[in-house]
Amino acid sequence: MRHFTLFATLLSSAAVMGPAFADQIVAASHITAVTVYPYGAQVTRVVDFDAAVGAHDVLIPDLPAQTPAELIRLQAEGVTLGAFSLRTDRLPPRDETKDPAMLAAKAAVAAAETDVRSAQAGVDAINAAVEAAEAQVDFLRRLRPEGDAVTVEGVKALAGMVGVEVLTARKEALAAQTQLPAAQKVLEDARKLLGDAQAGQDALSQRAADYAGLSVAITADAAGPVHLVVQHYVESASWQPVYDMMLTRKDPSLTIVRGVLVSQTSGEDWAGVDLTLSTAQPSEQAEPSVLWPDLKRVIDPVEMAKRAAAGDENAQEMLYSGGMSEPVMEPEVVAAPMIKGDVVVYHYPAAVDVATGVENLRLALDEIKLVPQIEAWAVPRRDDTAFVMAKFVNDSGEILLPGQAYLLREGELVGATQFSTVAAGAEAKLAFGAIEGLRLKRDMPLRAEGDRGILSSSTQVEEKAVLQVENLTAEAWPVRLFDQVPYSEQEDLEISYTADPAPSEVDVDGQRGILAWTFDLAAGEKKSVQLDHVLRWPEGKQLQ
């Protein structure tokens, strides 16, 4: 029998639990699947246990402490579900002997302690060898001939023997000392690994102290195994796309390598979970904003001031606030639905481990290959070099979500940018760094007092400019050259311009006064554009 229960609010313990239960079953859960949203995640955990016939109180003692009770969902097989409540007090201690993470942490600490002892024994053995050799040298130095040995030959023999033995002992001490740095390095590394293992165990122990328990009422019609599925929401999780955008000019191609960055600080590790990434945002606004009627009035301020002085509160309100205040109507509070209509969902094909509190985990998704149009964009008014621009149509059939993008041109990293959403079928463009061999200049040959390239009077300003693009590379480039002239929306201000050659496009992308020239520039070639404009206005008026 399968049931689905959702409580929007916690009930009081008396109302929730009903009559006294025959017994309490404490059953641990384990996480099997997680759906991560841009902000937050839905966690699916399973609980398996055996139940006798009758009513029981099942306590699941291992949910994160900050679990929102109103977003818990339950499913059950083999029993009838009753009410449930979330508890944070009077919980039994967690059984660390059944926690795989804690068991692994304790095993890592034990292994590290063994390695430290072994490394310390190696260092101690070397130090003992050095100490023994030095003791032998010290003993030999104190030897003195006695009795029949006090002869020239006896002294010589003793001195020779002492010299040989001291030399041998010294060599042994030096040989042992050469082994000491390596042994000390082994000990240092072993101690560091032990510290890391102990820190991991301490983190698990601290995390285990911060948890909540889910108390569920069940009724079993027959004795046997019970399978519960618990779904709940955690706020401290997120994911975001990340891209490697790889551009090549030969057989023009734009390869978009898609990946994701996943992070979570829920207080528990997600080990071997089935991971789904969704663009739904259940924590955000789920319905459109409400507009209220905006009533405007005109008032006689003199009459209103008299009424306000006489104590008329409505008149005071209208006089000092600019009108009668409208009643504030709060929008209705409703539960945010989990809508999947136009939500993009990615399911990762392999089990994933996402540790709590760790830096972003990067996971690879797939690659998309597009055919771009590559041009060199030149803005000599602002830049000294041209830049590579790739325009493309997203014909992948999938939306490209916003995220961090790393830009590679011919295999070399040239920069990074924040990539914006590109819908399926939409056109977009990306910049891929400067082209140092395409040099730009903007000369202004006219000279007048106070300004270079500008002739001015009280009613006229004339500017002449020469735009230049020089190709110092060994290959031809399609170039798109940009500049601008002023524009006016007043009849009194007349603006005219001349360009040689004429621009290929005016008012580029709807921006008035922005001009563009499109041409191919061969290797070693230089291209110039003459651009003049004149502003005229009536006598007595001033240009701004």
TrEMBL record:
Signal peptide extent: 1-22
Q: Which residues form the DUF4140 domain?
A: 34-140
- What protein name does the entry list? DUF4139 domain-containing protein
Residue ranges annotated as coiled coil are: none
Asked if Signal is a keyword of the record, the answer is yes
Do you know which Pfam families this protein is assigned to? DUF4139, DUF4140
InterPro entries under this entry? CHP02231 (IPR011935), DUF4139 (IPR037291), DUF4140 (IPR025554)
**Which keywords fit this entry according to its UniProt record?**
Signal
- Among its keywords, does the record have Cell membrane? no
PANTHER family (alphabetical): DUF4139 DOMAIN-CONTAINING PROTEIN (PTHR31005)
| Species whose genome carries this gene | Cypionkella aquatica
List, for all copies, the residue spans of the domain called DUF4139: 230-539
